Amino acid sequence: KMSIEIDRGREIDKDGFFELVVRRSWRLDEDEMPTLSQTLIIPHTLELPTGMARAKNMDLVWMGADGKTLVGYKAAIKTVFPRRELPDVLKGFFALYGELDRIPVSYLAPKAAVLPSYDFVWPTESGDWVGYKGVVNSNITLQQLPEDLQALIKTNAESEDLKVTFLPTAPTVANPNFTKSSD
């Protein structure tokens, strides 16, 4: 559509076009558009993915401080849980392999991982904590995350102190495009 408009010599509202594409792609209403650290992504599917999307880790993304750009870590979350189990406000922080291919994301550089994986936890309405054990790679720098997202990523000891109830996860799977020569 943009190329047709350019051919006709019309001015293009790129921001408006991008917003329209995002709204249509993810079926967003006005109250679901991003603000500050809320995420732009409302996933197409909330089920556990299959194929390559299942074999690759999810990206952890959030809105940048300017409220216009996505920032994140590539392949930072193990794809071992369906996003439907998360509260609505948290579902969009996780992007499956390929979901952000056409959306510009400013990815942060990972650090050398020396700790075991982090837990991703959140409080329930009753005040209890639930989450997924060891799904966040430890090669992220927690201080670079927005404060509200930082508060949901805990070490194993912090999770034990909060008495987190861990939800079951699926086993990790191998890349479907990779086969051993011994098979």
What would your notes on this structure say?
The chain is α/β, with parallel strands linked by helices. It is built from six helices and eight strands, in the order αααββαββββαβαβ. The protein has helices at 2-7, 14-26, 52-55, 88-91, 147-150, 156-162, and strands at 58-63, 70-77, 94-95, 105-107, 118-123, 129-136, 153-154, 165-166. The protein has a four-stranded mixed beta sheet, with no helix packed on it. A hairpin with a 6-residue loop joins strand 1 and strand 2. The longest helix is centred in the N-terminal third of the chain and has 13 residues, at 14-26. 21% of the residues are buried. Residues 25-44 have low confidence and may be disordered.
Task: Furnish the topology, listing elements before pairings.
Elements lengths: L1 H6 L6 H13 L25 H4 L2 E6 L6 E8 L10 H4 L2 E2 L9 E3 L10 E6 L5 E8 L10 H4 L2 E2 L1 H7 L2 E2 L17
Parallel strand pairs: 2-4, 6-8
Antiparallel strand pairs: 1-2, 1-3, 5-6, 5-7
Summarize the structure.
With 183 residues, the chain is α/β, with parallel strands linked by helices. 21% of the residues lie in helices and 20% in strands.
Q: Order of SSEs, N→C? A: HHHEEHEEEEHEHE
The shape is globular
Query: Number of helix segments?
Result: 6
Helical residue percent band: 10-25%
Q: Give the strand tally.
A: 8
Q: Describe the main β-sheet briefly.
A: 4 strands, mixed
Gyration radius, in Å: 18 Å
Taking pLDDT < 50 over at least 5 consecutive residues as the criterion, the unreliable ranges are: 25-44
Structural class, by secondary structure, is: alpha/beta
**Strand residue percentage:** 15-25%
Strand order of the largest sheet: 3-1-2-4
- What is the rounded distance between the termini? 49 Å
Mean pLDDT: 75
